[in-house]
Amino acid sequence: xxxxxxxxxxxxxxxxxxxxxxxxxxxxxxxxxxxxxxxxxxxxxxxxxxxxxxxxxxxxxxxxxxxxxxxxxxxxxxxxxxxxxxxxxxxxxxxxxxxxxxxxxxxxxxxxxxxxxxxxxxxxxxxxxxxxxxxxxxxxxxxxxxxxxxxxxxxxxxxxxxxxxxxxxxxxxxxxxxxxxxxxxxxxxxxxxxxxxxxxxxxxxxxxxxxxxxxxxxxxxxxxxxxxxxxxxxxxxxxxxxxxxxxxxxxxxxxxxxxxxxxxxxxxxxxxxxxxxxxxxxxxxxxxxxxxxxxxxxxxxxxxxxxxxxxxxxxxxxxxxxxxxxxxxxxxxxxxxxxxxxxxxxxxxxxxxxxxxxxxxxxxxxxxxxxx
Length: 372
Fold this sequence. Notes:
By secondary structure, the chain is an alpha/beta fold. Helices cover 34% and strands 15% of the residues. The longest helix is centred in the C-terminal third of the chain and has 40 residues, at 322-361. The chain starts with 13 loop residues before the first helix and ends in an 11-residue tail after the last helix.
């Protein structure tokens, strides 16, 4: 066999040859830097210029999910918001977090936030903890959609965080409201890789169960020419519900998401749509006392209608103006980023103040300030 001959290079000017040589040299340097870094990582010799700031010298928060399996119901668990609580709401806490899943009523600890779904199985849990000398024991009350669950134990907790807005409850001492968020498994949106609204394939969507006023909304959508994607389940979190990844991808490709009421006015869908750059369409809440939209501030950009029929011309007008549509999407994304930061700051302030109070009562030295 004859040896392969090198292909002749096309004729190039001296200037072009210099540019080519410089480009190849830069590429070679980059490749050598990258492979060198990988080799250092493999050999355990990589030293970061700035070591990661770890909160190891601050007292940890014991996050106790009382009788709660932290998987979503669709996958055999009992709670949908574990990742939202652990990884988003508590992101600014700047102290270690130790998680206890499916914890029994007998587990009582100092410096704990006890997550209660619906009601505590032992209504005297917090009273007994206080009587036994435990301190800094807060409660995160979840699932009180109908506002009918017992709350008498609130007075025995060091602080109370709850979802589902109720202005009357917020008038109680040391009770704080934090909004719902993102279902576990759906993940987080990456703004830098999102399509602008004008380039998304789906005009709108609704994905969920048919409850409350949702049947009326689905009827309006189907009788319109909006060409929306609809996936309606007969029951809440049924086994054949849409997989979280498909749900996420649908939001990422939708210009608008209908976010109707469920058993409560507030739903995860409302926040999930913003997380993935899909503009939520919401119907105005008639009950001022339960109006969680007030927590968003007066200048929020969320399109809100008086009834679902009004949503059709609103969406059509925005679809006809791609520039205005993309501007609204950017405003929604910017607002949601800012609002999440607000929630994280609020959660950290509530919990860290409780740590500071109890440290003083125990006669302990103040904790070191967390790294920025």
